[in-house]
Design goal:
The protein is mainly beta and about 300 residues long. The chain has one helix at about 160-170, and strands spanning about 30-35, 40-45, 55-60, 65-75, 80-85, 90-95, 100, 110-115, 120-130, 140-150, 175-180, 185, 190-195, 205, 210-220, 230-235, 250-255, 260-270, 275-285, 290-300. About 5% of the residues lie in helices and about 45% in strands. The structure holds calcium ion.
Amino acid sequence: MGENLVVNGSFTEDIDPPPGWSVGASQAVLTTEAGGQIGNCLMVTEHGANNPDARQIVIVTPGKIYRFNCYVKAGTEATYRVFLFDADHETFLADTGELEETDGDWSTNVNFTIEIPSGCTQIRIYLRQICLATAETTLYFDEVSLYEVPPEFQRLPINDQINWRKNMTQKNIIISHRDFLAAAVDVNASVTKVNGTDFNSLELDVRPLCGYGVITVTFTRAAGGASEIEFYFQVSNDEGVTWSTVEYLKIGYPTNSVAVSNVVRGPKPVIVDAITHIRLWKIVNGDAVNNCTACNATLSL
Ligand SMILES: [Ca+2]
């Protein structure tokens, strides 16, 4: 998909205030903080004005399609609003409205796909917190990106999307890898661990530009009896409001009788067309003797 047009969208370097971002007319304080969705992140601190935000102008081309993405996490303030503004016409291009971030774990994703209207050559990104004046409240954002979507990456039938993947590799286009679990979990012998009870799976946004992903699972296990460990995945087609009640994908691997150490167990393709999110549902260790440790799964798009 080419390069990220947002300057310092990952807040990689610990510099205050973060380069590339301005506070507009508000009195927000922008700082780079550890503990982001990946590495460092942006903290927006309210400092005497209502609804502080971080802003950045990005040059765009009329008629082209762009994909915007970022993550948000509550600090001492939970209400946020992300919007894209046509800076030439002073009109909204996309807007979340005021939403509350209730998970507190970087699982809340904001994304828009927009077509740039005629005469619009620059857009302004707003990362805003909705707060009480002088309350000094905080809210976090991270991994802010805007990519131009070339025509060959816009949705096509599955068969054509397979060809895109070849093109993606050949063109060195960014392929993202995301773990389902922020912290890998242990699954003891003959134990089933379930999302929401025993671990909290991230709900990965799979409204991508191609219809295929790949999931790999990893775990560590001592030598012992032959058995199987199974990873089950659920999907949503309404942005995580409701989830499938049977598995969308099951990856079961024989653990056999040899020790494995954080081995990537063979990738499996997953069709991510016509769904919006996927998450790890449960892990079943069918081995009556051995524990499996450091279990995780990764989605690559
Ligand atoms: Ca980051």
